[in-house]
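S., here's the first fold you wanted:
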Amino acid sequence: MKPLLRFLGIVTALFAVLLIGFSLMLSRTIRNRDRAFRVSVNRINSELNAAAAEGRDPQAVIAERMPDWSAQYGADLPQQPQYLPAQSSSAPFFADSDADSVICSVQDADGLLLGFTVYRVPDNTAKKVRQLANVLLIACWGAVCAAALYLYLRILAPFRRLSEYPVRIAKLRTAEKLPETKDRYFGNYVWGMNMLNDVMQTDSRRIAQMESQRQTMLASIAHGVKTPVTNIRLYAEALGTGLYSDHGPESKEIAAKITDNADRIEALTAEMIEAAAAAVSAYQPEIEPFYLRELADLTRQEFSGQMQLSRVPFTVTCSGNPLIRSDKYGLFRIISQLIGNARKYGDGTGISAAMMRQDDGFCISVRNRGALLPENELPFVFGSFWRGSNAKETEGSGIGLYVSQKIAAALGGRIFARRLPESGEMEFSVFIDTL
């Protein structure tokens, strides 16, 4: 709204300058014309007074002198002057209230009032032009302001809201759909973006599922290889200790080779396990400053609609509004995972997210009511491909919290899980050490 107000202010100032400048210019022209008109009136009336002093009829003098006055005064000559005798009983009553006329007295040589002469301004076009110009400028100002308001409300404001959506669906895996509209400018755009969002989310889920299955398979293979490797190591140690002493010195050489191969296989399996988990959690932070309330608003905006549809009570609170240097969308990815888990494993009676400042950083907390994890399982919830005892009948891959922990670590923080038996809630808290 501020750009619109700024534009309207500039337009208003511009039209005000034009209006004042044009009015001043025409006023100066009118004053100059009025001054010239009064000069000609004074001269003509002096001539009429001189003729009256000689006993001549002022009306006859006017009729006689009009051609000469026209040549002498040109455009400054008053319209046909009208002489009104003061002592004639047959003279018609005359009254004048027009500001564009001047009434002058005519006297004889003894100063006796003989009558009056009415002089009218020959042309008031400048005044009419000034009035017309003022009306036109005001009308143009109103039209420009109305057009600017229409463009802002119908095009610019909706476009500004929609322009952020491609970034949201690119960075947020759970971006909520745009409200459908029949607007002739953006209706098809909104429909297309929602369709694109559906396709991207479907593809993202499919890719995540396939990647999880692939990494699970790799991890399973790696774990399966560890057993024979362990057996090889045991046999090698038996040979090395002389358990099979009948083979003589060759047995020690064989044992050394077996041990060397076992070490290589073991290193390979460890690398496979690490690669399987790291591939799932690949993450590059994008550090930038933002206010904590922006993250709270983003969370509220993205999940409120989903929670309403699911009829799950959902609240987001933010205590304070510190300026943070971190990855807003990386933090939102963690929050999305925690809220997603809260929806899957909670009982649907309430989910809450709270964000607050700490002495040396800030904290994000997500709570949900439902089945509590046993105390002895809490140390393992952030392990890769680990699933708790409450997840037997729930879909999942067991890497969500592991990835979230990796993201938090990349941002200089950590995630903690705890049971709250008194309220029947599970709480996951994210602590980031630096602001």
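And the second, which I think is the more interesting of the pair:
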Amino acid sequence: MNRVIINLEALNHNFQLVNKWIKRHGGTWTLVSKVLCGHSDTLKALQQLGVQSMGDSRLANIRAIERLIPEFEAWYLRLPHVSVLKDVVSLTDVSLNSEVSVIEGLNEEAKKQDKVHRIIIMIELGDLREGVLPGSLLKFYDHVFQLSNIEVMGIGANLACLSGTVPNIDQLTQLILYRELLELKFNRKLPMISAGSSVVLPLLLEGKMPKAMNHFRIGEAVFLGTDLVNGGKLKGLRDDAVLLEAEIAEIKEKSLIPMGETTARTPFDAISEDEKTPGQRGYRALVTVGQLDTEVSGLTPMEPNYRIAGASSDLIVVNIGDEADGLTIGDSIRFKLNYGALLRLMAGKYLDKVVKPKIGEFILNHEDDGLVVPPVLDQVGSTIPD
């Protein structure tokens, strides 16, 4: 059977630990759930773990969350485009913005819906994705502060999402100074600095994160445990919260070197592997997941001696070693995932996604831990009971 397995024990471990880190810092956070692509069982499980603030970049996913969890705080993490402003206001509580004309549109929609829509103004700090240029901030805010149905919660930034810019103290200090400038100029409090994604967690763990950075948008660290700065996983987190399980359809001893003339014109990019010597043989297992299903280069077999030799649209070839390692037809090989591989798998329609253990069983097993669904927060960000 081919399936994505969401390990609720590991997911709970990561969520609790990240929450502990951020609470210790004195901040709040929003779980970035977009990689789940609206998967209902996992969303229900996250509610049971205590998540009450979720961010997504697809309105369809936010609709799915709203149907399952009526009382939650929704963040829209993709810059709103004009044609979806009505839905952004009706479905979400907070959005990230960098264009005056879009915020004006949000204000008009909020008037029609008799709502106040909250926003974070994104500032460009060097990653060259979204953000107001610092030189335009005063003019930008002077206009936005006048809008009747918009509440400016604060400022924020994205780093490492496009160009791989690693956040540093100088950049974060800039955000603090920008907030101070705006508060002094307009005599308005901006309570929040939304400092970024999982990429800032190493600074947080090193105790270098300024206290003024009081909100975080965290997804990858919870689902995959990833250290986005140093590689590997963050200390204490688990990297098995989501796994791919793929069924073996063929296993045979074969030559590890292609026979005959080869060409570089293959449908998919080659996957680098260990050097082979002419005539070398070994066992190869073919599993029935391929490039159509996921980003194969983002998969790593859980068995450290296995290596992915290559993949076509529907099959992955795994070098097992000199022996078959006890595997046979119908057995499965499990893979760890990077973010790109997980996103493709969750968005795809061909593989089942399974939460293990089931939510009811998980809660029963953790009753002695005091795991309960906490009351709805009156402030921004997720938290759980100590």
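Why I say that: The chain has two domains: 8-227+363-369, 242-257+267-356. The radius of gyration is 23 Å.

Talk tomorrow,
H.
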